[in-house]
Design brief:
Elements lengths: L2 E6 L2 H12 L5 E3 L3 E6 L4 E7 L17 E3 L3 H10 L3 E9 L5 E7 L5 E6 L1 H9 L3
Length: 131
């Protein structure tokens, strides 16, 4: 993944909400059009685009692909996201056979699905470093 882009009707509100969620300010912004954050262990890019610039009609309900961001504690992160104004899309689910894969997903206040995951495979790959 290089960049994950989300849509928002109110770009300023989305930028402020994600800055609070992520604990960092956007590193790049085009006023009224786009903001971008660098986050995580590899400084992945999370972009938020003003919905007015969408080249295609946007769905009325959240859905589509879910990108899961690795977190150290899904339950605590899920609770924090709900406290900050997200709504539940899928509650905490233990995946696999007790191998440590745990997921949950919320809908941000702007209609985007945001997945979170505890993923031992991700941590293993992170320990190996770049290839």
């Amino acid at each position: 993944m290089a960049t994950l882009n989300l849509w928002a009707d109110d770009l300023d509100a989305a930028a402020a909400w994600y800055a609070r969620v992520l604990g960092v300010e956007p590193y790049y912004a085009v006023p009224g059009g786009y903001v971008e954050f660098r986050i995580g262990d590899r400084l992945d890019e999370l972009g938020i685009i003003a919905r007015a610039y969408s080249p295609h009609p946007q769905p009325d309900a959240p859905g589509g692909a879910i990108v899961n961001w690795h977190v150290d504690d899904v339950r605590a992160t899920f609770a924090r996201l709900l406290h900050l104004g997200a709504t539940e899309y899928e509650g905490v689910v233990e995946r696999g056979n007790g191998e440590g894969f745990v997921t949950a997903a919320v809908v941000d206040p702007f209609g985007n699905v945001l997945g979170i995951m505890e993923n031992p495979h991700y941590l293993e790959m992170l320990d190996r470093g770049p290839r």
